[in-house]
């Protein structure tokens, strides 16, 4: 099953929420729509769900044109950030609701709900009401409800944002596991790049209603297409070509990037050589699994990272080394 | 696992049909039972005695000194009541929401009493206290004439006070404790905080309350009928033109002229209300007042003094209904409950039926309309929304008069409704449409959109969405709207006074007739029975809301 978005445009008044967006995805891919708030990612998800219609462009699932089909006939599974369980229904009734609408016999609904409750490991909560569940439990039920009808597409709108960090990590893994087990094409909206890196087969990075880059998480991280993606996907050192030429000329050996392209070097790719010279430690931040070190360097400030604790202290002189193949050249915009 | 197809595509049409039905039925009802009757009032006001069309009636009215006196009185009365109620309302609301005073819930309950009573009860209570045979008049021997300006002022004030307390209270509740804490740290005195923070924050709430009180007072008829005496106001002027002189067209003219200040006042109220309540931050920290003796002791005293007035007026009516012969023989008796005149208790039971029907029709219609409005584009919603605000600006007497013009026409099919309890119920729904509409819209807005969207994605059509998601989510609002319509219909007088007949009448009219005929104690007994039913309904509403709130 292939999903094609072709030249999707959507305006709200004078604001262009989506500007000529196109991409394709096919089962069993896990796609993350990633970007800062206001980039259009949620608008795009709602268009895919059928909760609104595009002003221009087409939405195809396989050979079928879905552009003007309302949400209720698309029958996709959806999970929102706010748990959105029906407060007047029990857990089991929530999960079975889509099947009930489709007129399935009670016995079949019961069996399917039982399977799903096992799958989300909450069989003991079947008769509880949503207000009796924790946030994480509610979101699992919402997930089970979404996949109960075997949707062709599973849509997740920041499903983890309302949860605290520990539950979020657990549920992240569970979502991925469930998605792979069901082999269902999944599209998730998130503003959390770590989440996108962890879950997605491919990331659609968006900015101002346009797609900035589509690629696997490692492609986006290692070879961002432009400054925005480089900046958004984790921490990076961005250097103008003139600076590189003057202070780290070897990075240009064998490369001939366009004149306005800039160098993107990830902090972990800067190797620090204590005892040597070239840069001075300005600040050291200990973040648990790594230490982030801010350096004064003739070409400007640099950020480097070392695993675990570091012996460096502010004021210390260090040498820096950057391997040329670790430097990505990105478009300025 | 077999793939489960979404429901068949043709069902899309049922959604459109359902939505159209939900929109068109209430709109058609508004056209027939609101717009059309009001148009007839306009037409009749322009119809001259020779049958021609012109402004002759207006010219005549504007040259009549009696009209100018009534207008002047109405304005003086409404402005004085507004000023008095704003002060008293601010005292009570401030005591309840910003001070630590004893019995806060009781205070609110006390000032809300008049809402549960027919509007004549304030007048009756004052007569029992200060009338010619009033207990205070008799014991002190003073020559008090409560009929007229002062009596009417107190009665109107009591009637409008609960609404003012409600609105000012809501404005006071919207406070953010952090602002007060910041001021505290800067060394601001309590009085300065009140002037610099509280007053600017609630000024639109005060304005909104002021316009509501003005509208309620200038359109009130019940109080004026019982205790107004010779103090002629516009509402009684309409009644006298129509009932006293059978001059319907002149009644229409006065009605139209009464519409001008009410519509203006109501419009200003909406503007003020939006300014006050449009921008309350979700992250505000609620303000919890700390006991401050030099503020709270005088405030408690003042607030309870204000609250004592409605308690005493209502209590004295109930008490008076059981007394053998007020104020001479205080033996308790039930003899006043044996009401013989004016159809006995039949009108009371008719009123209960009318009120149930009004509650059912009202909550259904308003829900259907609100539900469909949420699914329509903005430019369609705006004019409909505006039309739904209009009924609140139409005085009850004008609406009642409009119904005579519109439905007492034997040649029209709608004549079948004339003189029926159904028409009375419909009239009440129209009369209280706006408040019900605003409540319904608020309730609908509180249903999380994602809940509806989830159901849509799961394949639910609109009828199913209403049944499974929206109605269960906003059941408390529907219950409130039903009981609001019910309770208002139980006690209203102004709109229905023109529509009752010998066989189909309502409780408040019976109370008025008994009072007019001099059977004050029987009027009190009748009012007590009416209040009993309304109090029971109010209790039932609270129980229902409590039951509904347990599953949240």
Automatic annotation (TrEMBL), chain A:
Any one GO CC term of the record: ATP-binding cassette (ABC) transporter complex
GO BP, one annotated term: quaternary ammonium group transport
SUPFAM superfamilies xrefs: MOP-like, P-loop containing nucleoside triphosphate hydrolases
Annotated Pfam families: ABC_tran (PF00005), TOBE_2 (PF08402)
Iron among keywords: no
Lineage top rank: taxon: Bacteria
Domain ABC transporter: 3-233
Entry's family note: Belongs to the ABC transporter superfamily.
Protein name in UniProt: ATP-binding cassette domain-containing protein
Organism of this sequence: Microvirga alba
TrEMBL record, chain B:
InterPro entries documented for this protein: MetI-like (IPR000515), MetI-like_sf (IPR035906)
Domain ABC transmembrane type-1, residue spans: 71-269, 348-541
UniProt-annotated location(s): Cell membrane
Taxonomic superkingdom: Bacteria
The keyword Transport belongs to this UniProt entry's keyword annotation: yes
Pfam family, one: BPD_transp_1
Protein keywords: Membrane, Transmembrane, Transmembrane helix, Transport
CDD domains with a match to the protein in the record: TM_PBP2 (cd06261)
GO terms of biological process kind: transmembrane transport
Principal location: membrane
Membrane topology label: Multi-pass membrane protein
Transmembrane portions of the chain: 17-39, 75-96, 105-129, 149-172, 204-228, 248-268, 301-328, 348-372, 384-406, 493-512, 524-548
Cellular component, GO annotation: plasma membrane
PROSITE patterns, sorted: ABC_TM1
Family: Belongs to the binding-protein-dependent transport system permease family.
Protein name: ABC transporter permease subunit
């Amino acid at each position: 099953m292939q999903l094609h978005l072709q030249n999707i445009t959507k305006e709200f008044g004078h604001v262009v929420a989506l500007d000529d967006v196109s991409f394709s995805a096919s089962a069993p891919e896990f796609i993350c729509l990633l970007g800062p708030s206001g980039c259009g990612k949620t608008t795009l998800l709602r268009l895919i769900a059928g909760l609104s219609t595009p002003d221009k462009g087409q939405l195809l699932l396989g050979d079928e044109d879905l552009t003007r089909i309302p949400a209720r006939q698309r029958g996709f599974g959806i999970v929102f950030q706010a748990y959105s369980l029906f407060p007047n229904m029990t857990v089991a009734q929530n999960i079975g609701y889509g099947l009930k609408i489709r007129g399935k016999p009670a016995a079949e609904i019961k069996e399917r709900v039982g399977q799903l409750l096992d799958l989300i490991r909450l069989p003991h909560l079947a008769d509880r009401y949503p207000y009796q569940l924790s946030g994480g439990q509610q979101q699992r039920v919402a997930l089970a409800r979404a996949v109960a009808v075997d949707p062709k597409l599973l849509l997740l709108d920041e499903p983890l944002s309302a949860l605290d960090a520990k539950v979020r990590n657990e549920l992240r893994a569970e979502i991925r596991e469930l998605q792979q087990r069901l082999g269902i094409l999944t599209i998730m909206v998130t503003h959390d790049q770590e989440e996108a890196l962890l879950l997605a087969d491919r990331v659609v990075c968006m900015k101002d209603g346009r797609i900035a880059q589509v690629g696997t998480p490692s492609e986006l991280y290692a070879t961002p297409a432009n400054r925005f993606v480089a900046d958004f996907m984790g921490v990076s050192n961005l250097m103008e070509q003139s600076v590189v030429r003057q202070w780290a000329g070897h990075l240009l050996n064998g490369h001939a990037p366009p004149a306005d392209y800039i160098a993107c070097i990830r902090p972990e790719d800067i190797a620090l050589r204590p005892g040597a010279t070239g840069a001075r430690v300005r600040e050291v931040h200990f973040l648990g699994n790594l230490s982030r070190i801010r350096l004064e360097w003739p070409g400007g400030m640099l950020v480097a990272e070392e695993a675990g604790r570091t012996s460096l202290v502010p004021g210390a002189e260090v040498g820096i080394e950057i391997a040329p193949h670790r430097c990505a050249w990105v478009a300025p915009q | 696992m077999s793939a489960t197809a979404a429901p068949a595509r043709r069902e899309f049409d049922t959604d459109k049909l359902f939505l159209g039905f939900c929109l068109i039925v209430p709109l058609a009802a508004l056209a027939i039972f609101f717009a059309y009757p009001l148009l007839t009032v306009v037409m009749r006001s322009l119809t001259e005695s020779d049958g021609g069309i012109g402004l002759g009636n207006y010219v005549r009215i504007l040259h009549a000194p009696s009209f100018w006196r009534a207008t002047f009185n109405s304005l003086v009365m409404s402005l004085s009541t507004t000023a008095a109620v704003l002060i008293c309302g601010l005292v009570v609301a401030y005591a309840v929401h910003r001070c630590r005073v004893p019995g806060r819930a009781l205070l609110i309950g006390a000032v809300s009493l008049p809402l549960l009573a027919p509007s004549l009860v304030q007048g009756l209570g004052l007569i029992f206290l200060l009338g010619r045979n009033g207990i205070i008049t008799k014991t002190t021997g003073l020559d008090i004439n409560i009929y007229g300006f002062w009596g009417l002022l107190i009665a109107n004030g009591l009637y409008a006070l609960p609404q003012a307390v409600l609105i000012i209270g809501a404005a006071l509740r919207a406070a953010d404790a952090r602002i007060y804490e910041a001021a505290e740290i800067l060394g601001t005195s309590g009085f300065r905080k009140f002037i610099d923070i509280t007053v600017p924050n609630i000024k639109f709430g005060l304005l909104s309350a002021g316009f509501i009180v003005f509208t309620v007072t200038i359109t009130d008829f019940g109080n004026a009928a019982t205790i107004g005496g010779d103090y002629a106001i516009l509402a009684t002027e309409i009644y006298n033109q129509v009932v006293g002189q059978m001059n319907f067209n002149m009644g229409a003219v006065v009605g139209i002229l009464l519409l001008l200040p009410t519509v203006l006042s109501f419009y200003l109220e909406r503007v003020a209300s939006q300014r006050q309540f449009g921008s309350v931050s979700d992250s505000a920290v609620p303000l919890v007042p700390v006991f401050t003796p030099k503020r709270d002791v005088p405030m408690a005293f003042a607030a309870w003094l204000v609250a004592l007035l409605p308690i005493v007026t209502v209590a004295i009516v109930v008490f008076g209904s059981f007394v053998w012969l007020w104020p001479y023989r205080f033996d308790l008796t039930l003899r006043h409950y044996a009401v013989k005149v004016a159809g006995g208790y039949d009108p009371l039971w008719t009123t209960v039926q009318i009120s149930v029907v009004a509650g059912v029709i009202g909550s259904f219609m308003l829900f259907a309309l609100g539900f469909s409005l949420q699914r329509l584009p903005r430019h369609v919603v705006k004019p409909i929304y505006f039309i739904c605000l209009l009924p609140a600006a139409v005085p009850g007497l004008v609406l009642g008069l409009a119904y005579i013009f519109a439905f007492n026409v034997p040649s029209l099919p709608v004549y079948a409704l004339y003189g029926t309890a159904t028409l009375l119920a419909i009239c009440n729904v129209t009369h209280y449409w706006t408040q019900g509409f605003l409540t319904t819209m608020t309730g609908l807005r509180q249903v999380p959109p994602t809940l509806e969207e989830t159901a849509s994605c799961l394949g639910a059509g609109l009828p199913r969405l209403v049944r499974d998601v929206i109605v269960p989510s906003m059941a408390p609002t529907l219950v409130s709207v039903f009981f609001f319509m019910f309770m208002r219909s139980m006690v209203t007088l102004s709109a229905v006074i023109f529509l009752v007949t010998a066989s189909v009448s309502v409780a408040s009219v019976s109370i008025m007739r008994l009072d007019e005929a001099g059977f004050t104690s029987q009027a009190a007994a009748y009012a007590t029975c009416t209040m009993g039913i309304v109090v029971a309904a109010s209790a039932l509403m609270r129980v229902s809301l409590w039951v509904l709130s347990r599953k949240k």
